[in-house]
Amino acid sequence: MSPDPKSQIDSPQAWLVVAGAFIGAFVSFGVTYTFGVFLRPMALAFHVSHATMSVMFAVIAGLTFFLAPLTGELADRYGPRPVVGFGAVLMGIALILTGRAQSFPLVLVTYGGGLGCAAACIYIPAISAVGEWFEKRRDIALGIAISGIGCGTLVTAPLSALLIEHYGWRAAFTIFGWSSGVLLLLAAGLLRRPPIVGERKKAAIGDKLRTPAFGLLYVSLLFAGVAVYVSFVFIPAYAADIGASRVAGASVIGYIGAASVVGRLGLNALAPRFGLLRMYQSAYLILLVSFALWLPAHSYSLLVLFGLVMGVGYGGIAAMAPAVAAAIFGVAGLGELLGVMFTGFGLACIVGPPLAGVLVDQTHDYHWPVFVATAAAFLALLFVVPLTRYATRRERAAAA
Questions:
Q1: Which of 33, 37, 190, 223 lies most in the core, judged by the most C-beta atoms within 10 Å?
Q2: pLDDT tens digits, residue range 10-37?
Q3: Cβ atoms < 10 Å from Cβ of 272
């Protein structure tokens, strides 16, 4: 006799799913967010501008999030394991081929297209599975799983700089390709279909997408994404512009990753006491405050402080967004819903970094990315504040 599906919710098996999602986030976004470290050496190797390189990042992140509705639906239908397994093989091949590419158009296909498609197969399928394996501890489980992004950034950003200095950027991609493929296959092996499969009617999903609450979630994530991704792309170059070394510039991204773990776990841990939605809005405020530190940053120490504060805000947003969506809309069809919601990040990548890159190329001033990111963080906060009216009864009671 098969076990009662409800008895598996919040079980030890559910925590193995969290481990798989953590590894998936660690590898996929750890590799993606090292882009800023590779920006200058690759631009020099292929003789392309900052704006052109920023377009490649837009392709990576855009595909990651615009394909997420499809990969989320596939995971809802077939389970996360085959989707993440395919992404593991694709990411390994894409990175290895990037290390061997001899032209920028080919790199755009392998690095931009390959990495973007692979990450789309990994993140949303894994994270949505975590949301469906938990009920009582869903918020903390999602926080732990998504903290893989911060831990991955902490490790891979400075590691990339060291590998580039000692072996060159091509060898760095080859090393990342083999290691990423192996780790992601391990992640796929830990993932399983959720024990209780909710109704996933497209009409129900469509109704949720047309609500004002979803619109506010989407737009606030879009502007937050502009602020975050402009920072990831241009911080290493900004650090070099004020005299920091390549490893030091990459380390700022690592500090953002480390601080984001604090945001993902710390702000999430405070949610039961102060309310999930209130802590989610606080994360947007922290994100905006961080750019007040970057605006006057003419020293490396102040840039590091910006990274630490910005990481807390960014980490809290990334960790709590799925939980907020689940609290407002429920877990039925969560993979597809999150996939659509996170296309806001994809649109942010298409708009933000290329715009900042054009401004840098035209002015040769690395302060323009700071201005763009600050304005975006301000708009994000404006759109997330009205979400209060859509808090669930549980959140209202917790916030009272």
A1: 37
A2: 677 888 999 999 999 999 988 988 887 8
A3: 12
Give all strands (DSSP E) within the chain, no chain letters: none
Q: Which amino acid is at 179?
A: S
- Three-class SS of residue 191? coil
Closest C-alpha among 256, 235, 226, 252 to residue 62: 226
By C-alpha distance, which of 102, 96, 24 is closest to 64? 24
Task: Indicate the DSSP class of residue 5.
Answer: G
Cβ partners under 8 Å of residue 22, min gap 6: 144, 145, 147, 148, 151
Condensed to tens digits (0 to 9), the pLDDT of residues 231-265 reads: 888 888 788 878 888 788 888 888 888 888 888 77
Helix, strand and coil percent figures for the chain, each rounded to 5: 85, 0, 15
Who's near 47: CB < 8 A, 6+ residues apart?
Answer: none
Whole-model pTM: value is 0.73
Dist CA 208 CA 258 (whole Å): 34
Task: Give all domains of the chain, ordered by start, each with its CATH number.
Answer: 9-399 (1.20.1250.20)
Query: Amino acid identity, residue 33?
Result: Y
Could you tell me the two tokens for 14? Answer: 């559910």
